[in-house]
Amino acid sequence: QGHVAISKIRWWVGQHQARALPPTLSRDLARQLWAVWANLSACSLLGRFTISTLLGGDEPPPPAAYDSSHPSHLTHGSTFYMRTFGYNTIDVVPAYEHYANSTLPGEPRKVRPTLADLHSFLKEGSHLHALAFDSRPSHEMTDGLVEDEAGTNGEKNPEEPVRFGWVKGVMIRCMLNIWGVILYLRLPWITAQAGIVLTWIIILLSVMVTSITGLSISAISTNGKVKSGGTYFLISRSLGPELGGSIGLIFAFANAVGVAMHTVGFAETVQDLLQEYGSPIVDPTNDIRIIGVVTVTVLLAISLAGMEWESKAQVLFFLVIMVSFANYLVGTLIPPSEDKASKGFFSYRADIFAQNLVPDWRGVDGSFFGMFSIFFPSATGILAGANISGDLKDPAVAIPKGTLMAIFWTTISYLAISATIGSCVVRDASGILNDTVTPGSGACEGLACGYGWNFTECSQQHSCRYGLINHYQTMSMVSGFAPLITAGIFGATLSSALACLVSAAKVFQCLCIDQLYPLIGFFGKGYGKNNEPVRGYLLAYAIAVAFIIIAELNTIAPIISNFFLCSYALINFSCFHASITNSPGWRPSFRYYSKWAALFGAIISVVIMFLLTWWAALIAIGVVLFLLLYVIYKKPEVNWGSSVQAGSYNLALSYSVGLNEVEDHIKNYRPQCLVLTGPPNFRPALVDFVGTFTRNLSLMICGHVLIGPRKQRMPELRLIANGHTKWLNKRKIKAFYSDVIAEDLRSGVQILMQAAGLGRMKPNILVVGFKKNWQSAHPATVEDYIGILHDAFDFNYSLCVMRMREGLNISKVMQAHINPVFDPAEDGKEARAGGARLSVSGTVDPEGLVQEEQASTIFQSEQGKKTIDIYWLFDDGGLTLLIPYLLGRKKRWSKCRTRVFVGGQINRLDQERKAIISLLSKFRLGFHEVHILPDINQKPQAEHTKRFEDMIAPFRLNDGFKDEATVTEMRRDCPWKISDEEINKNRVKSLRQVRLNEILLDYSRDAALVIITLPIGRKGKCPSSLYMAWLETLSQDLRPPVILIRGNQENLEKGHGGHHWHFPELIPQGRKGNQQKHQEEGPLLREPERLAELLKDGEGAASEPFSGPGPTLTPDKAKAPSGNACLSRAAWKTISWQTGAPSSDLRESLIQEQRMLCLWELKKKNSPCWKPNFEQ
């Protein structure tokens, strides 16, 4: 009954959403189904939702299940109500599925209601209504829902993939990969060379590195859901795609070559057996190739058969190795035969153990680090279990437990074999049965003499063929049955080769799916229930065969070892970095790790890389860096919540807070702009202009005011923010996007000006576009526009107004909404007055913002050899000069010549020109020309004056013949209109704007950019329409963009007089008295001789920093060199003498040093104040 009811409910929901049922029938059917559903107290339900959720907001919902006025429904006393908390409410009880990132295909997603569903109202189309029964598969999650216990969908569940526990999936796999031929063929030899004590130290040092790495792996793997990809997944999701991608690629390649290494080791052992029995196939080299290719083909077939068969093969190899170990231990207990005794085996002896405790170095590799470099690769292989993380039942449990247990048991085996074989076998033996001697004979030397054997001759001549230090097959000789040791060698090599083959394909598949590198996506496709990377297997097989055919891996082997060590170093660093960032998301359930131990593990892994093979370490690090830089350059669009992001946040927070502790200084001034762009893609020219001079220098915020009721605009606010940010990033504009909702534009801009920014990183310049349609727009919008400019000055902002002949707004081609206060006419829309309230029509598609074709603007193209014309009419603190200087530093504008125009008197042109040149030289702006405009105050032409009067005529109050009461009422109703008195009081300013426009047309018609001082209309004395007429008149008919700038009347530039220091030692001899001459030479010079003038410091210009005996350099502003202006007090106090005068060489050296330090300090800050005229 329960299954039938649930199926009916699902059918009804689909019909209701499709509008296939009449509303009345739909409600009746809903009530019937609800009555059935309410009685299913024992039924397991997929989701919790009320009938109002199903019906939506368009139709009145039936009575709620918890409404006590309807006894037919649930009541507080019903059993179902009491036993099922959370059933009768939209709010949901905690469930794992709400936090998972994915769902099972074909299953409905269980979602929690949004805040709007709980707080506001539930309507059709809401988050809960749309998603409660969305059966489409999700690609954003990793876990999914609990399956329907009864399979109510009637669909057959797909066959479950094979999943392994911690023993079979991790511990056995890691142990097999750690054990290898070194255990059988080199550990006895290392014990003979280093002695038992140092061998144990070598083993424990190696295990210390792998154990620390194992702890780091355990911590990372228990910090959230681990999917397939193994080492690559762990590193990439911790440190980000840059390091993760590079390590993933080389780790997969190293495993593929590792298949060849272990296969060749197996082939060499088989080839030795064939040679021993006199049955070679062709010759030794080709025998290795033939055996290797056949073996790796068999391993490929096992892998293609699936993980289940591969796991069975690994268990078989494990059993073979266990039998070989038991065979060896039994052999050490069996009394030695004459043949074994002749080869140095005498069973357990205390004196042999004592002699083998100490080292006996022999050969070129006879050193501690030589033995360490040979043994360490045998301790690796701890990542074999983590590399198949996607095939584990519970990776968070299996990886820590299995990896650490594998390290423990393999360590025990290494230590035990080293101690036992060092207690049974002497270092030198001849293997000759006739080398017997009577115990106690004086001609015999060595421990073997006490057991009846004389190995003195071969020991002295270094010709012994057997013994612990001479015979690599000592374990086979000691064992009870030698072929079982050979079988153990086969099992160790083949299991390691098989593990490397699987690891290479699995890791590479995950890397291909993430698509961090081009042309590899083909290999990411999976097949079968386990999503087997068949194409990855074939690729790894091809790489292995290529290296097997070479049949000589002595050069490649150390590179592979270094690639594995790179992985260890980065895993440890991932754990350390995630811990040190203190991110709230770093909460591993495995607690037995230390961030400092992880850092030590990372460092020691790098050290071991260079101890093994320094050139191979350089190659490995070089490959990692190359791949790292490629990913950084490509910037893949992935977001994995890496610790690098957490570290970036910490640094940003720390530096932002640190800025609050430093007082603002004129030399550190930066133009931080709040740009009223609306949607940034509507005004690309405005965005590009500000982005050009703020790039890598200062803050830029694109402000957007959404006008209307908050409830209506809030969904749009959340929707469009990411799209606008993506648009800025795609256009390579380094800026922030900030939006607010307000009842009108002016209120929204006031909010932005007060709240935008963080700490010291707050805007100090407001940048707006020119309101081109002000004459046809509703006067209230013009009043708001001018009010924003006044508000900027009230908040002590500087102001920039940008005008382009073609207009700034391109939204008419985008079919999107536009703020009518800026430029509705350019969109083909008419502004509609609604009192003080302004409406906004249309919507914005955030995907369209990213896909929008980039409009070409003047600020994105090369400007060539044009001019940047600056009309510095009034002193506003220097912003009018600083912005064009910053613009000219950019490549696209670097070829433009900068001209400065200032007003002056006809009879003092030369004096004023020299004064301006002298002032500009102190600012070090490097402008090319200075022009004095003597005719600014001349009357403009009559037709131009007439045009201005016609422009303002519609906005005149015409109050000359009206009574005072009428005039007062008119001014109250139309504050933007211009009275006769205001026209008379502002006539001089009005005529000045007309005349300036004539001058601009004469001088700057073909300029690349015109920058002019913004005139200010006094608040309350200059109506908005008159002020807009000034701006219109001043900038009309000009082809180049016009930027009207007004600083906040505070100094942004500082000359070299007063408190600024200088370099008197840089002044050439015989030129100190020629400052006046150089000031009279006209345009600014870039000759080295002028440096003395540019650094001139008035009264202190002739003072020497090293005058008199025993000088001390101090920060005294009158006598200290100008380096003190950019170096700290502490830095200068270190350069001092208490007694005696420095020698001339020392003095010259110090002068050069302080000069270089100062130049370097200023240059590296990229400070706007760093603008020397002397560029050489």
Please name the defining characteristics of this protein.
1176 residues, mainly alpha, Rossmann fold, 40 helices, 10 strands
Structural description of this entry:
The chain is mostly helical and 1176 residues long. Among the domains are: 166-429 and 466-634, Amino acid/polyamine transporter I, CATH 1.20.1740.10; 668-810, HUPs (Rossmann fold); 867-1046, no CATH class. 49% of the residues lie in helices and 5% in strands. The protein has a ten-stranded mixed sheet with strand order 3-2-1-4-5-10-9-6-7-8, with helices on both faces. Helix 31 links the parallel strand 7 and strand 8 (929-933). It is elongated, with a radius of gyration of 42 Å. It comes from Monodon monoceros (Narwhal). The chain crosses the membrane at residues 166-185, 197-222, 243-267, 287-306, 315-334, 368-390, 402-421, 484-513, 534-553, 559-580, 614-633. Residues 169-674 form the Amino acid permease/ SLC12A domain.
Short description:
The chain is mostly helical and 1176 residues long. The protein has 40 helices and 10 strands. Strands 3-2-1-4-5-10-9-6-7-8 form a 10-stranded mixed beta sheet, with helices on both faces.
**Relative strand content:** under 5%
Class computed from helices, strands and strand pairing? mainly alpha
- Characterize the overall form: elongated
CATH hierarchy, class of one domain: Mainly Alpha
Cα distance, first to last residue? Answer: 91 Å
**Low-confidence stretches at least 5 residues in length (pLDDT < 50)?**
41-74, 123-157, 815-844, 846-856, 1056-1143
Largest sheet: 10 strands, mixed
Please, what is the average pLDDT? 75
CATH architectural designation of one domain: Up-down Bundle
Oligomerization state: single chain
> What's the total number of strands?
10
What do we call the CATH topology of one domain? Amino acid/polyamine transporter I
Full CATH superfamily name of one domain: Amino acid/polyamine transporter I
Rg, Cα atoms, Å: 42 Å
Arrangement of strands in the largest sheet: 3-2-1-4-5-10-9-6-7-8
The number of helices is 40
Helix content: 40-55%
Protein name: Solute carrier family 12 member 3
Subcellular location: Apical cell membrane
Keywords: ATP-binding, Cell membrane, Chloride, Disulfide bond, Glycoprotein, Ion transport, Membrane, Nucleotide-binding, Phosphoprotein, Sodium, Sodium transport, Symport, Transmembrane, Transmembrane helix, Transport, Ubl conjugation
Subunit structure: Homodimer; adopts a domain-swap conformation at the scissor helices connecting the transmembrane domain and C-terminal domain. Interacts with KLHL3. Interacts with IL18R1; this interaction is increased by IL18 treatment.
